[in-house]
# Entry
Amino acid sequence: MESFSNEFWSAEQICRRIFEQAATCKSLNNARAQWRFSSRFLLLDMKTLQSALCREEDGRKTYPIIGRITANKKFDVCGLTLMNSLATDFLHITAMIARRSGAKASGAQLPDDGEFDRRLTNVLFKSCALAELFGHVAAIDAGRDVTAYFVLATGQQPRLPLSPERIASAKVRHTDLAQKYRARLAWVQRKLYALGVDYETINELWTKYQPCDHPVWINKTEQPGSTIINDVWFPAEYAAPVRTRLASEQTKATAGAQRIAAG
# Structure
């Protein structure tokens, strides 16, 4: 795994700024003020994060794809999935702001404040989760023995040969990093409660989220078939499943809206 520690640290800081802006928005004392402020913090969006993760050499862009090895030895692109999920919430909030502006001008029904609050809660949770993931990966990347140990764990040979003593030391170091990562995630949950975020919503998000204690990353260069989905870059082999999932979610959302309209 090529080192991307600088990119990972930058991505962590961007996610923390996204969280801080969203937290400020959440702390405002009424929905109208939250709507107004949200249009500002959305300026710091997924395009900024995507740019921070990009490394360009000789006109070719390369991105680190963070994931984990599943029990059946497949590569789960959990980092991309979380980024895309956060980007989807950004796009929904942006669309709701546009609808609200148009509705106020035309006298039409305003978007639901409850849906806006739910999306804002999603942004708070996912930006924190992403920040901790990038921070965890950056810490692993900074310790090259730990990175080499991870490569060995996937059944491959690392570029950096490790003696049995260094493997044992790297294993201990990784255990320590994983424990600190979990402790920070627990602190994130407490921090969200302190912001007054709905308890059931956070518990639901937390239950669905799978922390990545043992992250690995692969480097992918832009090539035919790679694409941008909701401001997040996907290699060709991972784009199709995401499109299928998004299409399914859109179908369900449309069907739900039709049922509500029909009464």
Notes: The chain has one domain: 5-245. The first strand starts at residue 55 and ends at 57. Residues 256-263 have pLDDT under 50 and may be disordered. The longest helix spans residues 164-194.
